[in-house]
Design goal:
The chain has 552 residues and is an alpha+beta fold. 27% of the residues lie in helices and 33% in strands.
Length: 552
C-alpha cells in the first residue's frame, strides 16, 4: 500500500511537469463575433472545453485597448487582429509570453500565404492547409525553429519514391497494352485466314473494304442509301438483307453482297488474360487510360424541334449609355418579330397583333408584307395572299423576320435600371457605395452589375450587399448579381472597400439583365388561316435583353 501511494504521487508529479511544458494549448482563427473558423489543439482536451475557451474570448477583449493578450484564472489568450478576424493562441499561464508573441507573428505571416481572402469564406476554404501549416510551426505545444519558406516547403514536399513508383507502374500498363494489341491482332488475322478459306470471294471483298470484321454478322442490312461504300455513289436502289453470316455459307452468291458501309474500321478484340490484369489494376485504384474508338453517328446533333407548328418570337435589344453624374447619353431599343413554321400546310396564314400604343416606337414591315393591311388592321400578311410563308425546315432556325421597330429617347424615366456609384477616399482606404434603382415597368431577371477594380492582390472587402457577389481576379472585376428585381426590391445597395485609387477606375460599369416584357408591349392576338377552318395552334415568346448597357 505504501509503495502504491509513492507510485501515484510520482505519476502526478510527472503529469504536472509535462503540463507545465506544454505551453500552447490551441491555435485558432475566430471572427470578431466569436465564430470559430479554424482551431488546432496541441494537447488532449474535449470539444466542449475548447469551445468554451474560444467562446469566452470575445467577451474578454475590450475596445480601445492596445494589449495583445488577456488572462483568466487558468489560461492566457495571445491574439492579433487580421482584418475582420482574430488569430489567437490559447496558452497556459506558465508560458513565456515573448516566445508566444514570436509564434503568433510567424502564424500571422503564414495565414495570408494559404488563404487568398482574409474573410470567413476564404479561411474556411483553406482550413486543412492552415491546420497542416500550424502543425509545422507548433509541436506538442512548443514552437519549432522554422521559417515561412520552410513551412511552405514542408507542406508541399514531393516524394521522389512516389514519382518513381508511378513511372514504373505506368510503364507496366503501357507494356501490357502493347502485348494486348499484338495478341488481338494475331487472333484477328487467324480469324480472317480461317473465314477466307470458308467463305471465298465474299471475305476477300470484305477484307479489301473498310468494313468491320467480326466472327459473325447478325441481322445486318446493307443499303445503298446508307451514305457509305459503293451504294451512295453508284445510284443502285437495291437493298440487300443478310440475315446471318456464320461459319457456314447459306448458298447466296458472293455477288449479291454490296460493299460494306464506309467508315467502320477493323475492331481488335482483347484477350482474357490482359483484361483480368487491367481489371486487377483498376481494383487497386489505378486509372487505366484505354483507347476509345469513336462511335459512328450523325455529324451534327439536331436540336429538338419546336412542339408547336407555328412559333412567334418578339425580341428587343437594349443599348443604353448613362452618365455617372446623372442623365442619359444614349438610349436605343431595337425590336424584331420573327415567325417560324414547321409544316408547309400551315404556311398560308396571316398574323394579327396588337401593340401597347407607345408613341415613341416606329414600326417597319418586311418588304414582302402588305403595309396597307398592317396600317389599317394590324395584320401581318404577304402581299400575294396565295404565297405561303417560308417554313423552318432546312431554313433559318431563328425564323423569318416580319416586323422591326425602334425607339430612341433621352428621358431618364424610360431607363429600366439606373446605377449610382459613390467612391470616397478615407485614409488608406477607398469606400465605394453603389446603389441601383429599377423602374416599376419591368421585372428584371438575372441582373449582373460588373464594376471594374484596380489590380488587387486579394478580393475586395464587401461590407454590405443586397444579393450575391463574385470577384473575377483575372479581369479584376467585381460582379454584383441579383436573381430577380420586382416590387419587393426595386432598390438595393452594395458597399465595399479597396486600397486608395482614383474614382475613374470604377467606370465604365456594365449591366446585364433580361425581362419578359418589352417596351413595345407587342402581343400576337391570333393567327388567321387563309384556307379557312380553325386557327392553328401557335406559341409566342417575348424577351427584352441588354446588348450594351453601361454607366460611363
Amino acid at each position: 500500500m505504501h509503495n502504491t501511494s509513492h507510485l501515484a504521487a510520482s505519476e502526478l508529479v510527472i503529469f504536472r511537469s509535462q503540463s507545465a511544458k506544454m505551453v500552447v494549448l490551441a491555435a485558432s482563427i475566430v471572427s470578431k463575433s466569436g465564430k470559430v473558423l479554424v482551431s488546432r489543439q496541441f494537447v488532449d482536451m474535449t470539444r466542449i472545453r475548447i469551445e468554451a475557451l474560444l467562446a469566452a474570448f470575445p467577451k474578454l477583449v475590450g475596445t480601445g485597448k492596445q494589449h495583445t493578450y488577456v488572462e483568466t484564472e487558468n489560461v492566457r489568450y495571445v491574439y492579433q487582429p487580421i482584418e475582420a478576424l482574430y488569430l489567437l493562441l490559447v496558452t497556459n499561464k506558465q508560458s513565456n509570453i515573448l516566445e508566444d508573441l514570436e509564434t503568433l507573428r510567424l502564424l500571422s505571416k503564414l495565414v495570408p500565404e494559404y488563404s487568398v481572402s482574409l474573410d470567413e469564406e476564404g479561411v474556411c476554404k483553406t482550413a486543412f492547409e492552415l491546420i497542416f501549416a500550424f502543425d509545422e510551426v507548433i509541436s506538442l505545444g512548443h514552437k519549432e525553429n522554422v521559417t515561412v519558406a520552410q513551412v511552405k516547403q514542408y507542406c508541399e514536399m514531393e516524394s521522389h519514391e512516389e514519382k518513381l513508383h508511378k513511372l514504373v507502374l505506368q510503364s507496366k500498363i503501357n507494356e501490357t497494352k502493347d502485348v494486348m494489341k499484338r495478341k488481338a491482332s494475331e487472333i484477328d488475322k487467324s480469324k480472317i485466314e480461317k473465314n477466307r478459306g470458308e467463305k471465298g470471294g465474299f471475305m476477300s471483298l470484305q477484307s479489301m473494304g473498310s468494313g468491320r470484321i467480326e466472327s459473325s454478322f447478325n441481322d445486318m442490312s446493307i443499303s445503298s442509301g446508307g451514305g457509305g461504300g459503293f451504294g451512295s455513289g453508284s445510284g443502285f436502289g437495291l437493298t440487300t438483307d443478310i440475315d446471318s453470316f456464320s461459319t457456314k455459307s447459306k448458298g447466296r452468291p458472293p455477288s449479291s453482297a454490296t460493299a460494306p458501309p464506309k467508315g467502320l474500321g477493323m475492331q481488335l478484340g482483347k484477350t482474357q488474360r490482359t483484361n483480368q490484369f487491367l481489371e486487377s489494376l483498376k481494383a487497386e485504384g489505378e486509372v487505366i487510360l484505354e483507347d476509345v474508338q469513336p462511335k459512328a453517328g450523325p455529324a451534327r446533333s439536331a436540336a429538338p424541334p419546336p412542339t408547336d407548328p407555328i412559333s412567334l418570337s418578339a425580341e428587343e435589344r437594349l443599348n443604353v449609355t448613362l452618365k455617372r453624374d446623372g442623365g442619359v447619353s444614349n438610349f436605343d431599343v431595337q425590336g424584331t418579330l420573327s415567325l417560324q413554321i414547321l409544316n408547309q400546310e400551315d404556311a398560308l396564314i396571316q398574323v394579327q397583333i396588337e401593340t401597347g400604343g407607345n408613341p415613341g416606337i416606329l414600326f417597319k414591315t418586311h418588304p414582302n408584307i402588305n403595309k396597307e393591311l398592317f396600317s389599317n388592321e394590324n395584320i401581318l400578311g404577304l402581299k400575294d395572299p396565295n404565297r405561303p410563308f417560308p417554313t423552318g425546315q432546312g431554313g433559318d432556325a431563328a425564323g423569318v423576320g416580319l416586323l422591326k421597330w425602334r425607339m430612341q429617347s433621352v428621358d431618364e424615366s424610360d431607363v429600366p435600371l439606373t446605377i449610382n456609384c459613390w467612391p470616397s477616399v478615407s485614409g488608406n482606404e477607398t469606400y465605394v457605395s453603389i446603389e441601383y434603382e429599377a423602374s416599376s415597368m419591368f421585372d428584371l431577371r438575372n441582373v449582373v452589375i460588373s464594376v471594374p477594380l484596380p489590380a488587387l492582390r486579394e478580393a475586395p472587402n464587401v461590407r454590405q450587399i443586397d444579393g450575391e457577389w463574385r470577384y473575377d481576379s483575372r479581369n479584376s472585376i467585381l460582379e454584383w448579381s441579383i436573381l430577380l428585381i420586382d416590387n419587393s426590391n426595386r432598390s438595393g445597395s452594395m458597399e465595399f472597400v479597396v486600397p486608395p485609387v482614383d474614382s475613374s477606375v470604377f467606370f465604365p460599369i456594365s449591366i446585364r439583365f433580361t425581362a419578359a416584357k418589352t417596351f413595345s408591349d407587342l402581343k400576337v392576338v391570333n393567327v388567321l388561316p387563309l384556307r379557312g377552318g380553325p386557327s392553328p395552334k401557335f406559341s409566342q415568346r417575348t424577351t427584352l435583353i441588354t446588348e450594351n448597357y453601361q454607366v460611363v
